[in-house]
Amino acid sequence: MDIRQLRYFLALSEEGQVSRAAKRLNMSQPPLSQQLNLMEEELGVTLLDRKRNGKRMELTEAGRALYEKSKVLLELFDDSMLEVKETGEGIQGTLAIGAVLAYMSYLPSKVKQFNDKYPSVTFKLFAGDPYEINNYMENQDIELAIVYLPVDSNQVFIKNIGEVPNVFVVSEEWEDFHFKDKISLNDLENTPLLLVHREKGLGIYEEIIEEFKKNELKPNILCECHDVNVLLSLVSAGIGASIVPKSAVSPHGIKGVRVLEIIDSAIQSKIALIWRKDRYLSKTAKHFIDLF
C-alpha cells in the first residue's frame, strides 16, 4: 500500500460514492474501484460497505481505523514535503488566510504591505462566522485566521493583535438618533436589538448581555444571527439596531447606517491571529505573522 492509495481511500471515505470520489481525484471510476479492491485484498478486510445503502458506501470498523490513521499520515507527509520544498527557497507560493466577517478590515493593509515586500506570493482569503473559520482551519483550507477571543488554546497558537470597541449602529431613518454621535446603554433598553451570536463558545453576544445586567437593564432582543453582514443589512432596512465591533462598519461605513459610540460600556472585542499547533507552518505564513 502506498501514499497514492491512501489518498484514494480518503476520497472514497469522505465522498461515499465512487463517482464523486473519482471526480474529486480527476480520474475515471473503474481504476479507482480496482484500487479499493486491491487495498482490501492486501489487508484481508472490508474497508467500505457497499451493501448497507444503495447510494452511499459506509466505513466498516476496519475502514474507520484506517481512515483516522490515513488522515494523520497524509497530513504528516504533506507537511514534510512542504518543509523540504521550502528549504532554501525564497518567499513564494500561496498563503490562505481566514477571518471572521467582522474583522476582515484587518486584512487589506496587511496584504498590501506583504505584497509590496513579497510580490511572488498570492493569497486565498476566506471569510465566515467563527464556526466556519474553525472548520476551514481543521480542513487545512487555511493556515492562519483572524478571530475573536476566546478560542481553545490547546489546539492553536495565539498572537493577540488588539482590541476593538463595540459601537451602536442604527438606521439613518430612525429620527430619535439623528442628532446624536454618542449614546448610553440606558438609552438602548427599549430599542429592538439585532445581535451577533456565535454558533459555539462565548462571544460578543454574552458580553453584551452581561453588560446590560451590570447596569440592571434588560435588552430587547429582536433577532440573533451569526452573520454580521446580514445584521447590518437588517439595520439599514430599519428593522432594528445592533451592537457590533467597530471594525465591522469601518473604514468605509455601511450605506443607510449611522454609527454611535457607547459612552458607558467597556465591551471590547479581543482580536487574535491563530494557527494550528499540530501543523507545519509555511515560511510564508511565518513572515506574514511578523507583520502584526
Structural commentary:
The chain folds into 3 domains: 3-86, Winged helix-like DNA-binding domain superfamily/Winged helix DNA-binding domain (Arc Repressor Mutant, subunit A); 93-161 and 271-289, Periplasmic binding protein-like II (D-Maltodextrin-Binding Protein, domain 2); 164-268, D-Maltodextrin-Binding Protein, domain 2. The strands form 3 sheets. Strands 3, 4, 5, 6, 7, 10, 11 and 12 form an 8-stranded mixed beta sheet that branches. Strands 1-2 form a two-stranded antiparallel sheet. Strands 8-9 form a two-stranded parallel sheet. The model has no long low-confidence stretch (mean pLDDT 85). Strand 1 and strand 2 (58-59) form a beta hairpin. It contains 9 helices and 12 strands. The protein is an alpha/beta fold and 292 residues long.
